[in-house]
Design a protein that fits this description.
Purple Acid Phosphatase, chain A, domain 2; six-stranded mixed sheet; alpha/beta
C-alpha cells in the first residue's frame, strides 16, 4: 500500500474557470492528472489531496469534480483549501458522499486518520505572520487554524496510543507553515512538538526555490505538492508505512 500526494487540482467541470489563463503549463491539466494518476496509483493505494480541489461553490456543483476523483484508483483523503468554497460541515459532506455513491473519499477535518501504514494529521493553514499581507483579519484566521491543528494533533496522539510500534507521521496542509526563507511559525512549531515526520503543502504556484528544495526545518521535512509544481503527477510519499521522500525532484519523481 503506497501513499501519494497531489494538491491544487483546481477542477472546474461545472463552473467557468479555465486554468490555462494562468500559463501554458496548465494546458489540459486535468487530462495530465488523470493519465499520471491511473498509471501510478493502484486500487490499494491512498492519495492525499491538500486543498483547492474544485472551483465549485456548493456540494452539488462540486459533484462532477468529486465524482471524477472518486473514479480514479485508490482511496483519497481530502483537505480544504482557500478556494474550496463548496466545503461545508463534515457531516454534510459525508452524507452527500454516501447519497451520491462516492465511496473512496474521506475528509480530514480536526482529526487524524491512519492510511497506508501512516498516521495522517493536518489543517488548511493560512497566511503567516511574516507575510506582507498579514493583517488583523488574517491573524484571526491563523489563530483558528492553530486551534484546528491542535485538535488534529490531539487525534494523532490518540492514534499513537493504539499502536504497539511507532508509525511515521504525515501532516497535510494547504498553506505552507514555514516562510519561503524557512522562518518557522506557530503552526510549524506545533508540528515539531508533536514529532511529525513530514509536512506536505500546496498553494504555491510561483517559482519558489527554497520550497522546491524540500527543506528539513528542525526535525520536519517540508514537501511542496501543488499539482503544477509536480507536473500534475501524484508524488510518492511512502510505501507500507515507510517514507521514501529523502530527495524529491520537481517532476514528481524520486531521485535515486
Amino acid at each position: 500500500m503506497r501513499l501519494y500526494a497531489l494538491s491544487d487540482l483546481h477542477l472546474a467541470h461545472a463552473v467557468d474557470k479555465p486554468m490555462d489563463i494562468f500559463g501554458a503549463r496548465w494546458d489540459n491539466h486535468v487530462e495530465k492528472i488523470i493519465h499520471h494518476w491511473t498509471v501510478d496509483v493502484g486500487a490499494d493505494d491512498t492519495v492525499l489531496i491538500g486543498g483547492d480541489i474544485s472551483w465549485a461553490n456548493s456540494l452539488e456543483e462540486a459533484l462532477p469534480d468529486l465524482s471524477l476523483i472518486d473514479c480514479l484508483p485508490g482511496k483519497k483523503i481530502l483537505l480544504r483549501g482557500n478556494h474550496d468554497y463548496w466545503w461545508t460541515t463534515l457531516r454534510k459532506m459525508e452524507m452527500f458522499c454516501e447519497e451520491k455513491g462516492l465511496s473512496t473519499l474521506q475528509f480530514l477535518r480536526n482529526d487524524a486518520i491512519t492510511q497506508a501504514g501512516f498516521d495522517i494529521c493536518g489543517t488548511r493553514g493560512w497566511l503567516l505572520p511574516t507575510d506582507e499581507a498579514f493583517d488583523a483579519a488574517a491573524e484571526k484566521v491563523f489563530n483558528r487554524e492553530k486551534i484546528r491543528l491542535d485538535l488534529s494533533l490531539q487525534g494523532l496522539e490518540k492514534l499513537r496510543k493504539k499502536w504497539t510500534t511507532s508509525r511515521q507521521t504525515v501532516a497535510l496542509m494547504h498553506y505552507p507553515p514555514i516562510s519561503e526563507k524557512g522562518t518557522p511559525s506557530a503552526l510549524s512549531e506545533q508540528l515539531e512538538k508533536s514529532q511529525v515526520d513530514v509536512c506536505l503543502f500546496g498553494h504555491i504556484h510561483h517559482h519558489a526555490p527554497y520550497y522546491s528544495s524540500s527543506p528539513l526545518v528542525g526535525s520536519v521535512r517540508y514537501i511542496m505538492t501543488a499539482s503544477d509544481q509536480l507536473k500534475f503527477r501524484p508524488l510518492l510519499i511512502g510505501d507500507d508505512g515507510q517514507l521514501c521522500i529523502a530527495d524529491v525532484e520537481p517532476s514528481g519523481g524520486m531521485i535515486s
